[in-house]
Predict the structure.
Amino acid sequence: MASTRHSVKIWRVSAIPGRRRPFINYLESARAAIASHDRSKPRFHAFLKVCQSKPACGRQSLADLMVTPVQRLPRVLLLLEDILKRTPPSMEDHATIQEAIAALKKVVEHINEDKRRTEDRLAMFDVVRSIHNCPADLLSSHRHLTAKLECVEVSNLIVGRGHPVTLFLFSDCLELCKPRKKPLSSPSLKHVTRLSLLHVEQVLDLGDAQFGIICEHGPFALTTEGDKKAFLKELCANIATSLCRPDPESLLRVASVEELSLEAHSLTLSRRMKRYASRVVQRATSLHNTPGRLRRALSQLLTSPFRQHEGSPMGKSGEGQ
């Protein structure tokens, strides 16, 4: 009877994910908010220190105490596995402990999967907020972000040769963005086009840091300093999933520049990129093209009452000395 009661209590653990889902999914963001307030608000910092010194807290901080409920299930799982090693198979409790371990493993897997989905949704929101004129239907429940890559176009199809392009690879599409002309603006990227993976015919490895994509709009080539190999592997896997193909490796092949109708010297963008970089730096450091907030801050600094004027007593005292 005792083992039956224990097994009933263990199977009730399956209700934990639904009850603690908001707490577990947003635990990291809550801890980050507490740490931010702890640094910026002295009274809140003093309150946390007073609570931490109490015997009930065991000299643990609030962030450490928040992690305790999440770590409890893995600790119980390790404890049951240790008890199972010391329980003979002939005992009746041996089968009950095995059932309890299986139930707890399912709960832990469910919690981890639900947390991963929440992180994917938050990543999608961050991408949408960072893109100006982002399509509203980019945010979808069946779509998730898998990779991001900073590139420079070496063809002349998307934004122009020598201009930077940011690629957001989703499970069923490829979002192409370019930096906005206004520096330090928010959002920092601008929507260019969205390419469905169903319309991608081939992915080409052009050697070194270059790669190309053949789609319905035509072929285009890019170069990157990021992890090109991992990005192309993820891209081919998503294309194969969208097309229901079992051979993602067949979508990627090594090719030459001539196949994309590009000249060999088009892959060397040093001069073009130097001119573009100089224009970006000049635009960012120019006061006339500086955003309004920075201009207002500079004007307030120049007209500050603490600045020494010629007719101020401070100036006169300084001259007298």
